[in-house]
Design brief:
With 400 residues, the chain is an alpha/beta fold. The chain is built from 14 helices and 21 strands. The chain folds into two domains: 6-178, 3-Layer(aba) Sandwich (Rossmann fold), CATH 3.40.50; 188-286 and 293-399, 3-Layer(aba) Sandwich (Rossmann fold), CATH 3.40.50. The protein starts with 5 loop residues before the first strand and ends with a helix. It binds cytidine-5'-triphosphate.
């Protein structure tokens, strides 16, 4: 997604400037070309050399530097794919809202037609001041995207709203803005993720080894291709992605209810979650005490979400198999009456449940079988969404 993108990263004079090093580093590691512009105040908090070292590119601090093409810098940088100001102080926000271009960063923004994203960071009173709020509203109404701030401990020692958003959220927002006109623009996609938890008593539950990584990768990839995403997630240790609706659930029944609500108006349902097929018949109010004898739990079936939720949307299922991969997956596709099934072999240790990579086979209703090599889950997600995009395009042609 970020590979080959040109990103201007504007740093202003906030104590959070040091956190922008992580943003610059992650963007650079993802293959983006990052040009940092620092205001004079920012250089009091952190040295330009830090960003130069991290990005491998010169850092602009002076309004009158000439680029190698002998263009005035703010004109050459203004053509970036996106300009991100992180952290953005109340002062820079006020200048941008009033069209003042007395430093290199504001001049670049004013000269640019690129999307602009800002991540404010400041004292809580400054942030809540109606002047700052008015300035932010003006920027929003002009199409700027604002990420954060979040609540937490501020440099003053006080707690409140004003803390710099975390690097993952800033980068997630950059990806979302860059993908605004992607091939899934305007589509609503519901993704489920993680392993459901079926309670036995107040401290115990039945669950499985799903990490949720495949579902989260799908949700982020769909977001970055312009889709509106609802992620229905069982508990996982993953960071909740920004830029989508998140519905937290625990049990298979709760997932069923959440998916039913979310699919009332959707174009696609992707069931990447590992849903428990059985749950204890009763959840006990008291913790089960250890006895000398064994323990038998009475279980009942949970609803099959893919089968029971019907509607005019594309359905994608997963088939986690330990044997007869293609045959079992094909049977699930037919039995569950779905459009695509993504089969993966859970016996291989380098792919599947907890791994970062996955090796999948995608089968459709026409029995077209696509085998993919071991790929990072994010790349697998894009392969699946490529197929979903084709199905959506075919469907809208048929509806014409
Ligand atoms: N699924 C579902 N509701 C369930 C169980 C599974 O919607 N109660 C979905 C899963 O999210 C997945 C697909 O059905 O997309 C296949 O899940 P899987 O566990 O591989 O298969 P099952 O249908 O549960 O069959 P089995 O466990 O016997 O292989």
């Amino acid at each position: 997604m970020l590979k080959g993108k040109t990103i201007v990263l504007g740093i202003t004079g906030s104590i959070a400037a040091y956190k922008a090093v992580d943003v610059a580093s992650q963007l650079t590691q993802s293959g983006a070309k990052v040009d940092v512009i620092m205001t004079e105040a920012a250089t009091k908090f952190i040295a330009p050399l830090t960003f130069q070292t991290i990005t491998g590119r010169p850092v602009v601090t002076n309004m009158f530097t000439l680029s190698s093409e002998s263009e005035v810098e703010h004109i050459s940088l203004a053509t970036a794919d996106i300009i991100t100001i992180a952290p953005a102080t109340a002062n820079t926000i006020a200048k941008l809202a009033s069209g003042i271009a007395d430093d290199m960063l504001c001049a670049t923004v004013l000269a640019s037609k690129s999307p602009i994203l800002i991540a404010p960071a400041m004292n809580v009173n400054m942030f809540e001041n109606s002047i700052t709020q008015d300035n932010l509203s003006r920027l929003k109404s002009r199409g700027f995207t604002i990420v954060g701030p979040v609540s937490g401990r501020l440099a003053s020692g006080k707690k409140g709203l004003g803390r710099f958003a975390n690097a993952t959220d800033i980068i997630g927002s950059i990806c979302q803005v860059l993908g605004d006109n992607g091939d899934l623009d305007g589509k609503h996609i519901v993704v489920t993720a993680g392993g459901t938890q079926e309670p036995i008593d107040p401290v115990r539950c039945i669950t499985n080894r799903s990490s949720g990584k495949m579902g989260y990768a799908l949700a982020e990839a769909a977001r970055d291709r312009g889709a509106m995403v609802t992620l229905v997630t069982a508990p996982t240790s993953l960071t909740k992605p920004i830029g989508m609706e998140i519905v937290n659930i625990c049990t298979a029944r709760e997932m069923y209810q959440a998916v039913r609500v979310a699919t009332s108006q959707t174009d696609v349902l992707i069931m990447a979650a590992a849903v428990a097929d059985y749950c204890p018949l009763r959840e006990l109010d008291e913790k089960i005490k250890r006895e000398s004898t064994g323990l038998t739990l009475e279980m009942e079936r949970t609803p099959d979400i893919l089968v029971s939720i019907k509607g005019d949307f594309i359905k994608v299922g997963f088939a986690a198999e330990s044997n007869n991969l293609v045959e079992n997956a094909r049977q699930k596709l037919q039995q569950k009456d779905i459009d695509l099934i993504v089969a993966n072999d859970i016996t291989s240790s380098d792919s599947g449940f907890c791994a970062d990579d996955n090796r999948v086979t995608i089968i459709d209703r026409e029995d077209r079988i696509d085998n993919f090599p071991l790929l990072p889950k994010r790349e697998v997600a894009d392969k699946i969404l490529d197929r979903v995009a084709i199905l959506l395009a075919t469907k809208s042609k048929q509806q014409l």
